[in-house]
Specification:
By secondary structure, this protein is α/β, with parallel strands linked by helices. The protein has one domain (about 100-415): Spore Coat Polysaccharide Biosynthesis Protein SpsA, Chain A (Alpha-Beta Complex), CATH 3.90.550.10. Helices cover about 40% and strands about 10% of the residues. The chain has helices spanning about 1-30, 55-60, 70-75, 110-125, 145-155, 175-190, 195-210, 240-245, 265-275, 285-290, 310-315, 320-330, 330-335, 340-350, 375-380, 400-410; strands spanning about 100-105, 135-140, 160, 220-225, 230, 250, 255, 300-305, 310, 355-360, 365, 370. Helix 4 (about 110-125) packs parallel to helix 5 (about 145-155), helix 7 (about 195-210) runs parallel beside helix 14 (about 340-350) and helix 9 (about 265-275) packs across helix 12 (about 320-330). It is globular, with a radius of gyration of 31 Å. The termini are far apart. The protein binds guanosine-5'-triphosphate, 2-acetamido-2-deoxy-beta-D-glucopyranose (NAG) and magnesium ion. Magnesium ion (MG) binds near residues 226, 306 and 367.
Length: about 425
Amino acid sequence: MPATANVRTLRFILLAFFSIAVLYKIFTSSSSNYSPSLNVPPAGGSDIGKIPPQLPKSELSSGDTKPDSEEDQSPFSHGTTPNAKNNFPLTGTAPGKRANATFITLARNSDTWEIAKSIRHIEDRFNRKYNYDWVFLNDQPFDEQFKKITTRLVSGKTKYGLIPKEHWSFPEWIDQDKAAAVREDMRQRKIIYGDSVSYRHMCRFESGFFFEHELLADYEFYWRVEPSIKLFCDVDYDPFLYMKENKKKYGFTLSLYEYKDTIPTLWETTKKFMAEYPHHIVEGNSMKFISDNDGKDYNNCHFWSNFEIGSLNWLRSPAYRDYFKYLDRAGGFFYERWGDAPVHSLGAALMLKQEEIHFFDNIAYWHVPFTHCPTSEEDREKYKCSCNPKDNFDWKGYSCTSRFFEMRGWEKPKGWEYQMN
Ligand SMILES: Nc1nc2c(ncn2[C@@H]2O[C@H](COP(=O)(O)OP(=O)(O)OP(=O)(O)O)[C@@H](O)[C@H]2O)c(=O)[nH]1
Ligand SMILES: *[C@@H]1O[C@H](CO)[C@@H](O)[C@H](O)[C@H]1NC(C)=O
Ligand SMILES: [Mg+2]
């Protein structure tokens, strides 16, 4: 009958409506109040709630603990592997004492974004745990943007200095016409930076003046950083303290042969200096590294100075100062194109003992176009390196590092043959 059918339909609709209401009630209340059995993420919607912000160390390192529901939801349990054995050391601030040291960068305002990249590398791999200061020097005043961006990125104090005019100009004894003729000649011979005046001021400043700047008077050690460099491994110890505690005065990562046309008379001038100042030349020096015939000729080997960790007090010593003054008088920064790398290197090789020069093998470093990547697989694992070992320059033909090893009587690290070319 139509009447009975209508009643049945109405009853069905009411029942269905009631059931939906009850189900709705159960769901909405369970997700906000008693979720454990249902495993519904907490309100807020984001996935962040599923990932424990810090997995306790004990859980990371004990491979055989049964995963509880929390680990079940961590991203590690779904097809990726937890790095269970290693704890990641570069978190928080390293305890213990610090050395009397700073980073040092010479830069122009136009270098802002390239030095920003370098700072991130240094901070991420080392300094965020050690918070060393950073001194920036420039022959022009730094602008607000340079200061803002670099201060933002450095975890230590930042200091900005203007280079005094005498440290960035021609000394009065330089013959301007002669210097200009040299630049024109080098331009025609296409010698890199051969016609540049500012590059020469830069090389002279880095050779003899940066360590005299008043902002560096407060420090004993420096780490030089240029724009656009990269670090590829964690530096999970303090290289400054290492220098101090092991009585090191100069540290390098890369060495190579200098372009002879930029330094035709540097060695002759250095030999005259040695004859006039024999007391500055130390016993147990590194003559073997820079000469193959006991000092007659320079083999052009030098440490690449865009990376340096060194002692400011050594550079400020009478020996090194006398050496720089002698070279500066000779005029080769302007009559040739002497670089600060061979100047520092000859100084270090002759005025330091072999043991005072340190090869920072575990600091993996890149400045266009060369890479230093540790040869040792153990080190590359230990320091979480991202460099391709085949790119390591140390054992290739144009590197001087094997000469350094030979001089010290060291065996080359396992696997070096695979990186020769
Ligand atoms: N303030 C200032 N800094 C300079 C000047 N020229 C170079 N520099 C800095 O001096 C350092 C060396 O200069 P670079 O241009 O990197 O020279 P380079 O490393 O021989 O050559 P690149 O392969 O171009 O890097 C860098 O830290 C530069 O930022 C300059 O005219 N003024
Ligand atoms: C750091 O070294 C400089 C240079 O040797 C020195 O003048 C200064 O007193 C030292 N500072 C500290 C805190 O030792
Ligand atoms: Mg550079």
